[in-house]
Amino acid sequence: MTGVRIAYVMGTVSGGAGEHVAMLARGCAQRGAEVTVYGPAQAGRRFFPGEPPAPPGPAVGFVPVEIADRPRPARDVAAVLRLRRLLAHARPDVVHAHGLRAGAAAALALTGHTRPSRRARPSRLARPARRPAGALAVTVHNGPPAAGTAAAVYAVLERIVARRADAVTCVSADLAARMRRRGAAVAGLALVPAPPAAAPDGRSVAVARAGIAGAGQPVVLAVGRLAPQKGFATLLAAAVRWQGRDPCPVIALAGSGPLDQALRAAAGADGIRICFLGQREDVPALLAGADLVVVPSLWEGQPLIVQEALRAGRPLVASRVGGIPDLTGQDAAVLVPPGDAAALADAVLSVLDDPALAARLSAAARARAAALPTQDEAVEAALDLYRRLAGPVPAPS
Description:
It is a single chain. The chain has 397 residues and is of the alpha/beta class. The chain folds into two domains: 5-193 and 374-390, 3-Layer(aba) Sandwich (Rossmann fold); 202-369, Glycogen Phosphorylase B (Rossmann fold), CATH 3.40.50. Helix content is 43%, strand content 16%. It contains 15 helices and 13 strands. The chain has helices at residues 15-30, 41-47, 73-90, 100-110, 149-164, 173-181, 202-210, 232-240, 260-270, 283-289, 304-312, 324-328, 341-352, 355-369, 375-390; strands at residues 5-10, 34-39, 60-64, 94-98, 135-140, 167-170, 186-189, 219-223, 250-254, 274-278, 292-295, 316-319, 334-336. A seven-stranded parallel beta sheet has the order 3-2-1-4-5-6-7, with helices on both faces. α5 links the parallel β5 (135-140) and β6 (167-170). α7 (202-210) crosses α10 (283-289) and α8 (232-240) crosses α13. The chain is globular. 48% of the residues are buried. Mean pLDDT is 88; it is low at 114-124, 126-132 and 393-397.
């Protein structure tokens, strides 16, 4: 897609969404597109270290725009106005925002630019005339909170994106259905592959496991941001139910986040055998050394740790929520209701106590992993969407 100009917009993101944007940006740049990413400086340092401030050619440019992770009216207005100026100057063919906050910011930043009426379009993915700041695509990466202020804010962001985006992609079928109900022009499911990882060697696996548990102790691994969405409080409540077992399963919890101290306090109060690992770069070794992987999310999109567990062929217990069932199918995981500590505990113990069940889950996981999308497939799918949105792009003079 030589000659096309793509602007990615991202907010304050966790690992999965940020890695996805970085993968798409670099993949499109390698295929000849001119790519610039706009987002918080923190996201730039994490996902685009060393990138130039503007694209000199095939490289990816990164420009700071402080899109906050929660409502902050003054900062939000400043971010939208800055993004509006930057996009008006850059004149990208396609703006692709990731996440509802970034999507709403991009939609508001593009407000006022020339845009054909949706009612006049023969197709919601075909633009008869190019607007100066480009078409807007938004990828929804996460499900909504169940209730409270955050859920109300999420609903407002959904409506802004649904009404103003030219195309919306979602990481799971339930999110796509939700955005369709909001009136969005849903263009299908986004392909969000986990980054490829080399198989760990035996020494690194042994070292990773030795730092968690002694010989004969089952290791239950959980990986993710220590935030309410990931359901780690439910995991601790489930673990209370197996503390009297011999040998007692040990939870290995890898990740950081705002609930770190609260989870440590709760685990200490209940005497739970748990090892807080913090942010780790050796997740493949941790996976290989675990007896079981658990994903107790309360709401979810398409978590990368599920894909990583499938590729590692690990027995998996996960919440039946969001895009998780689509990833695992019926055979590659034991799925439980989100927030149900008793069901989670029963599922974990059923796998640990039944080697045949664990072996079946492992075999099914490897089979599912073979069908997971690759990064090349994800980039080509995104480029296909951009072609439909941008229409013919003139060759550079």
